[in-house]
TrEMBL record:
Keywords: Membrane, Transmembrane, Transmembrane helix. This is Peroxiredoxin family protein. The chain crosses the membrane at residues 21-42. The keyword GTP-binding does not apply.
Amino acid sequence: MSKISIIISKGSLDGVYPGLIMANGALMEGHEAILFFTFFGLDAIIKSRMNKLKVATVGNPALHIPSLIGILPGMSSFATAQMKKEMEKLDIPPVGEFMEMIHDAGGKIYACKATVDMFHLKKEDFCEQLDDIVTVGQFYEMSLDGHIIFT
């Protein structure tokens, strides 16, 4: 069994799901999975925000729409609704449910202490699946002899 550590630093729907899908896949294949949320990636594990993530429409070339269109009111909500509809067709769960699945399968979920301090957050702000708030050094220690992926 190998160890996969995934750093999630983006708080958009399209920034969070790749890490969740990779962690879940690693667990399903019998590997150890560690998720480390930092900067705006913390939105994925903050109780009040985790199920309200949106698709970034401005400056996102993968959407194949001009940035001018991306700034129009409602475009982010529209793109988010479309993505969620497609994910639902594939039976991909909402973020909160995904966190439960990963945690219940043995995945570890951590928040970056420096970012938590910088954003003036407390452990109570996070979902119950959060294992701990750790320093970067602690994350590296946990990730020794494994693979680190930055999404």
